[in-house]
Amino acid sequence: MSEWMEGLNALADVQVLAMLVLGVLIGIVVGALPGISATVGVALLLPFTFALEPLAGMILLLGIYGGAVYAGSIPAILIRTPGTPASAATVADGHAMTLQGKGVQALKISVLASCVGGFVGVLLLAFFSPFIAEFALGFGSAANFMLALFALTVIASVSEGRMVKGLISGALGLAIAMIGLDTIQGFPRLTFGSADLLSGVSFIPLMIGLFAVSEAFIQVERAAKLNLRMKPEKFRATPAWLRKMLPSGMLGSGIGFIIGVIPGVGGDISSFVAYNESKRITKGSSQYGKGEPRGIAAAESAKNAGTAGALVPTLTLGIPGDVTSAVLIGALTVHGLQPGPSLFTGSPDLIYGVFAGFALVYIVLFLLGWFGTGLWVRTIEAVPPKILWPTVVVLAVVGSYAVRSNIFDVIIMFAAAVLGYVMTKGGYPLAPLIIGVVLGPIAESGFRRAMMIHNGSFVWMLEPIPLVLGVLTLASIGFAIWRARKKPVLLTSTEEDKVEGKVS
């Protein structure tokens, strides 16, 4: 208890509180801009923390982290353009609700679920960090492979009604993930002699092209007018509505935190896994992908709980849970602090101040996000389609170039836009492709390392964690096949257009 008092006293400083609010505001702007991820935002502001006290600097970066991860859902819902990779799972239901005139409700769900997931994640981080970190160390190569394999079963759910096309899309994603240097031996694959492809296909330009620019192409082709139809919407967060959202939100919070704890896995996977599991346990799950609020709640709570989960190995072991937390390690070391067990005993005011401050980030984020919903809507409504979609393309170019300051990423983005356009016109879902790209490197690296460690034997599949994950994978596949046979969903071309958020 004394450690908590030290942390709260350190947090009760005008500079720290000012940095908290500033960080959240910057994070919202960063996350809402396609291509400018939370990692980019945190890295850009890192030098400004050098002149601050350690806690103030950390709280500024955590505010950006939490705000950016949430705000990626704003363009995902309104214009089908995920601001951050973790928001890709929100696109289908979020944008479908916008086209149904329920965009305000979708945005409210997003901020509520994001803050609930983040807050729950911070509580778990604060009280269970040492124990969870020890468990996470047990996730070796074999367990990482089985976890990725389990997550790949999400393709069956997001492709329901278009299973064959979904599997083709997922396989294409896995093929794209193989481009670049071999993860084990460093041998170039599918580079066709191009030095620019040695580092692989950058994920953010790929995602921006698939979702944002391909949508711009389609909207321009159809000369569609953006009609969000939000003004007539009367929405109230009633107790009944909250009770409906709660199970998916809590499920997503738990899944997101657990997956976030595993070093190197990240929140991009957790949002898809949580979405899939929410769909699995929900009655009337045929509405998922067509504007189901509970799908948004699961995905949004998972991705924000994953941010707290990623800090568990970061703070307790000095092992970054994801790319953004690796930048946070840099912020600590600049101030002469070494992440690890000694951080809890040597600087309790800092570590418990971080816990309390990160929880406060989500309270501030909720207030800004909930009452700022009208601002996001009015901003989009005020922009005519003939300006909006060219602006989206310009932001896509800027965001793609900003990732690595490489014009080749812009080329990748436009190539992905053409691919996304062709796939959408052909009825191929885009989500499986993204899932394949995210999980491909994790699955390949984990499998090959496990085989090398065990001299080509599959005995690692009988280890406790891989065995449990293997059983869950088989159960997930079996359940998807059973549900498809029991109640097949056949979409007409018109219905497919509605699912993808098209208007004629």
From TrEMBL:
<feature type="transmembrane region" description="Helical">
    <location>
        <begin position="109"/>
        <end position="129"/>
    </location>
</feature>
<keyword id="KW-0812">Transmembrane</keyword>
<feature type="transmembrane region" description="Helical">
    <location>
        <begin position="428"/>
        <end position="447"/>
    </location>
</feature>
<keyword id="KW-0472">Membrane</keyword>
<feature type="domain" description="DUF112">
    <location>
        <begin position="17"/>
        <end position="435"/>
    </location>
</feature>
<dbReference type="Pfam" id="PF01970">
    <property type="entry name" value="TctA"/>
</dbReference>
<dbReference type="InterPro" id="IPR002823">
    <property type="entry name" value="DUF112_TM"/>
</dbReference>
<feature type="transmembrane region" description="Helical">
    <location>
        <begin position="167"/>
        <end position="185"/>
    </location>
</feature>
<feature type="transmembrane region" description="Helical">
    <location>
        <begin position="389"/>
        <end position="422"/>
    </location>
</feature>
<feature type="transmembrane region" description="Helical">
    <location>
        <begin position="241"/>
        <end position="262"/>
    </location>
</feature>
<feature type="transmembrane region" description="Helical">
    <location>
        <begin position="135"/>
        <end position="155"/>
    </location>
</feature>
<feature type="transmembrane region" description="Helical">
    <location>
        <begin position="197"/>
        <end position="220"/>
    </location>
</feature>
<feature type="transmembrane region" description="Helical">
    <location>
        <begin position="58"/>
        <end position="79"/>
    </location>
</feature>
<feature type="transmembrane region" description="Helical">
    <location>
        <begin position="459"/>
        <end position="482"/>
    </location>
</feature>
<feature type="transmembrane region" description="Helical">
    <location>
        <begin position="20"/>
        <end position="46"/>
    </location>
</feature>
<keyword id="KW-1133">Transmembrane helix</keyword>
<feature type="transmembrane region" description="Helical">
    <location>
        <begin position="350"/>
        <end position="377"/>
    </location>
</feature>
<protein>
    <submittedName>
        <fullName>Tripartite tricarboxylate transporter permease</fullName>
    </submittedName>
</protein>
